Amino acid sequence: MRLLSTFSLEAGHELAKPIHNDKGKVLIHSGVLLTNKMIERLNDYGVTYVYIEDEATNDIVTEFPISDQVRNQAIDRITDTFDKIKSSNIKDSFIFDRTGEKMKDVVRKILSDIQGHKKAVSLLSDVFTYDDYIFTHSLNVTIYTLALGTELGLPSKKLEELGFGAILHDVGKVKVPREVLLKPGKLNDEEFKLIKEHSEAGFNILRAAPSVSLVAAHCAYQHHERLDGSGYPRGLCDKDIHYYAKILAIADVFDAVTSNRVYRRAMLPHEGLEILYAGSGTKFDLHMIQAFRRSVAVYPNGLSVTLSDGRKGVVSRQNTEVSDRPHIRILEENGKAVVPYYEVDLGKELNLMITECDTTLVGKTK
């Protein structure tokens, strides 16, 4: 299967991976031949990339790092908790007394799936649309955070604590007006001020709940702080920012830039990593960024790429030890289709580099 931009889809392309909404319901099934109307709907839904079937790549597979069951449980738990806080007159602390243990159980299941996955994390392996970005973002950040925390060697108890803070890091956004959260254009100063208040709002919600640790509350409070003091809400510098918050900052930014938003189309993972590296040492911890690079699939399976010698192909599988040096199936050489195609392992061919990524078609599809 191949990863394509929705803007490069054509009628007749066969969908290789189903399109889900954020509740896990299938909107378009795999195997469906796309029509122009379906493609238009995908763009309306805000879907940036899809996987299509392709004769030369039909054995290339992608895997989501957690099971559908755990994913749906997590989204349901996040949605239920956030909605209750937003709409209920009951004290927030009472809500967490009732739901906190269930949320912790979900975090343990996510952690178990990630550690059992034993592969670089790719959240492009299934395509989801969503009615509320906060819920999906909270789950994605938790997955990235736990993958990074595992790579950094944190013990299980600390990973569970970190994951609980991650899944609730944006709870303060329930206090931000929806029209501000979903505004498609640039925020004015007053609107940006409202957005920035979510960190302190989340901290106040969580620290008032006896069942929530103060460390988890500080994950909400500090995930927008930056090493050089340019973050918010307190402008803390490196030594004053909690270790967990430094991890969360990386996961939060990476998911934000690689997810489709109302005001911006999603970047690919390698582009998201470039954003992080641009802020290494000033905004983000370099050691953590390097560990994060090992944790995620920099070039996801199915992505069309161009190599430094001009050959073109598709990422066929990952190298466990070097996530930015995957296996490439060569489909085009010297401007001509390769028959039969063959594989190149960038983990061994160190003289070759990926110089370009493409989400349009390379070679001929069926």
Compact description:
GO terms for molecular function: hydrolase activity. With 366 residues, this protein is an alpha+beta fold.
Question: Would you write up a description of this structure?
Answer:
This protein has 366 residues and is α+β, with helices and mostly antiparallel strands. The chain has 3 domains: 56 residues, Alpha-Beta Complex (Molybdopterin biosynthesis moea protein, domain 2), CATH 3.90.105.10; 218 residues, Hypothetical protein af1432 (Orthogonal Bundle); 55 residues. Helices cover 42% and strands 13% of the residues. The chain is built from 11 helices and 10 strands. The strands form 3 sheets. A 5-stranded antiparallel sheet has the order 9-8-7-6-10, with no helix packed on it. A 3-stranded mixed sheet has the order 3-2-5, with no helix packed on it. A hairpin with a 5-residue loop joins strand 2 and strand 3. The longest helix has 26 residues. The protein is globular and about 65 Å long. The termini are close together. The mean pLDDT is 88. Keywords: Hydrolase. Its EC number is 3.1.4.-. GO terms for molecular function: hydrolase activity. This is HD-GYP domain-containing protein. Pfam families: HD_5 (PF13487).
Number of self-contained structural domains: 3
Radius of gyration: 21 Å
CATH superfamily of the largest domain: Hypothetical protein af1432
List SSEs in N-to-C order. EEEHEHHEHHHHHHHHEEEEE
Mean pLDDT: 88
Low-pLDDT stretches are: none
- CATH topology tier name of the largest domain: Hypothetical protein af1432
CATH architecture of the largest domain: Orthogonal Bundle
Shape: globular
**What's the total number of strands?**
10
